[in-house]
Amino acid sequence: MGWPNTMKHMRSVQQTSKGSPARVIRLTDVLATIVVLAVVCTLVGPQFSTASQNPGDAAVAQDLTFLRQQIALYRLQHRDLLPGHIRGANRTADADLVVKQMTQFTDEKGNVSAVRSDRFRYGPYLTGFPMHAQTGISVLRLVGSEAAAGWVYDAKSGELTAGP
User: Fold this and answer.
1) 33 and 70 fall within a common domain
2) pLDDT band at residue 8, thresholds of 50, 70 and 90?
3) Which of 14, 70, 96, 134 could form an S-S bond across to 56 if both were Cys, CB 3.0 to 4.6 Å?
4) Minimal CA–CA distance to 99: which of 77, 117, 126, 70?
C-alpha cells in the first residue's frame, strides 16, 4: 500500500461523505464544558436559592434602592442639603419633616408646600414611604428613635436602612 496511499486513506476516514472534514468531539472537550458549567452553577446557584426562600428580602432591597435614589435626587436638587433639614434654620431634624419634604413640594432651602409654585418647584419625590415587605410598617424614624418603623433614616449622613 505505501506511504502516500496510507495518508490518502486516513484523510478519507476523517471526512464525511460530502467531502467536508468531520467534527470530532473529544472527551477533553466534554469534560471542559462540564467543569465550566459546574463553576457557573456554583457561583450563580446560591443567589437563586436565597431569593426564592425570602421573597420579602428582594422587595425590601428594591424599595431601599428606590428610596435611596430619591434621597440622592433631593440632595442634588437642594445643593447638598439632606432631607430633614432647612437651610438657614437652626432646628433639629425630625421624621415628620423628612416625610413632608419627600412627599410634598419644596423650595431650595427645604421649606415645604402642598402646592407647586415658582418657589416650591422641587419634588415630590415619593407618594409615601412604601410598606416594608417583612414588617408591614411604612413609618420612617430617625436614627436614635426607638419607635417601630419600616425605614430608619440618619439625617446627618443621609443613610437610609430597612427597619428591623
Assistant:
1) no
2) low
3) 134
4) 126
Domain count for the chain, please give it: 2
39 and 68 co-located in one domain: no
pLDDT higher than 80, residue 13: no
Does 80 lie in the same domain as 94? yes
Torsion sign, CA atoms 90, 93, 97, 99: positive
Range of the domain at 37: 3-51
pTM over 0.70: no
Rounded to an integer, the average pLDDT of 30-42 is 86
Cα Rg, the chain, nearest whole Å: 31
Q: Provide the b/e sequence for 90-128 (b: ≥16 CB within 10 Å).
A: eeebebebbbbbbbbbbbeebbbeeeeeeebebbbbbee
Together in a domain, 93 and 13 = no
The torsion defined by the Cα of 124, 127, 132 and 136, in degrees rounded to 10, comes to 150
